[in-house]
Design goal:
Layout lengths: L11 H4 L4 E6 L5 E6 L3 H26 L5 H8 L4 H8 L3 H7 L2 H4 L4 H11 L3 H6 L4
Antiparallel strand pairs: 1-2
Helix pairs in contact: 2-3, 4-5
Keywords: Coiled coil
């Protein structure tokens, strides 16, 4: 793509005054870098991804409020993690983390275990236990 044809569409990047670095060709046909505020296909894909993430967060929050899941599920979604990533961060086997998703098991966790989750999510133990129900 030629430098003068690099798209400058309105996107999520524009809202935050961020530009993306792209490669394009200059008038001599040499590759050079240029900045773009976005282009429509990428904006649509990014918007769809963000919508899906927000849906998953809302679903996780509702599960916690309904007593179907522990707050770990909610914070995992907020932090855009999956079971594998969370398991590696806290240093527990996946089956053990999955077990902690159960509200009855979560309620019995000691502060040492809760601290690992809280540190991973960047919250206090108190926030981990109570922030969703408020």
């Amino acid at each position: 793509m030629e430098k003068e044809n690099v798209p400058q569409d309105q996107s999520n990047l524009t809202k935050n005054n961020v530009k993306e670095l792209l490669y394009a060709t200059d008038e001599n046909g040499n590759y050079t870098t240029t900045l773009s505020t976005g282009w429509e296909p990428k904006t649509i894909a990014l918007s769809n991804s963000i919508d899906e993430i927000n849906e998953r967060i809302a679903d996780a929050k509702q599960q916690v409020l309904n007593g179907e899941a522990s707050p770990i599920v909610y914070f995992m979604e907020v932090n855009k993690m999956d079971l594998n990533i969370l398991s590696s961060y806290v240093g527990f086997w996946k089956w053990r983390v999955k077990r902690h998703f159960k509200p009855s098991v979560f309620a019995k966790l000691n502060d040492k275990i809760l601290k690992k989750y809280a540190d991973t999510f960047g919250v206090s133990i108190e926030e981990l236990k109570n922030s969703i129900t408020k």
